[in-house]
Amino acid sequence: MIFLQLFWVYVKIGLFNFGGGYAMLSLIQDEVVDKHGWISMQEFTDIVAVSQMTPGPIGINSATYVGYTCVLNAGYPLPVAVLGSCLATLSVCLPSFVLIWIIVHYFTRFRQNRYVASAFLGLRPATVGLIASAALLLLNSENFIDYKSFLIFGFAFLLTWKVKLHPILTILAAGVSGLLLYG
């Protein structure tokens, strides 16, 4: 039953996602943490952090990790959990694939239509709001931000902005800073 629920949840998330992976994080959190309780808020926060560091879109990466964790937490063995990660990943991508295929097929006819242009203009501020809500959902009691976190943030920001350090090296430097400060 978990597989059918996982499929349906991620098809809904994929269908109502506008603005990319960061915008879908609040939808994922609402479904898998709040409504279904498949994972804890701490697990979700860890999944978001790992999804940000791994190559690829954060929404798809987080779907992969959530699918794996949900099925594993439901008591299934490791190979079945891998199937859960594959199912969640495919489910979140399926609506976008189908919709883009349909849009590309018909968009050339309607691209100059003022209603279509207005709809796309209306989606822009909504996208900014969804991304902002994703940032705010990570500010909770389980993600207490202390002065050490601000130091690491400032250090990483300066390394990226002023020194132009490669993002992977910045992530490694932040990890080393975390070990030194929280060690």
Plain-language structure description:
- There is one protein chain.
- The protein folds into two domains: 2-141, no CATH class; 145-183.
- It has helices spanning 2-15, 21-35, 41-53, 58-73, 78-110, 114-137, 147-161, 167-182.
- The protein has 183 residues and is mainly alpha-helical.
- The model has no long low-confidence stretch (mean pLDDT 86).
- The termini are far apart.
- The protein is built from eight helices and no strands.
Short description:
This protein has 183 residues and is mainly α. It has helices at residues 2-15, 21-35, 41-53, 58-73, 78-110, 114-137, 147-161, 167-182.
Helices and strands, with pairings:
Layout: H1 2-15, H2 21-35, H3 41-53, H4 58-73, H5 78-110, H6 114-137, H7 147-161, H8 167-182
Helix pairs in contact: 1-2, 1-4, 1-5, 2-4, 2-6, 3-4, 4-5, 7-8
Tags for this entry?
globular, single chain, 2 domains, 183 residues, mainly alpha, 8 helices
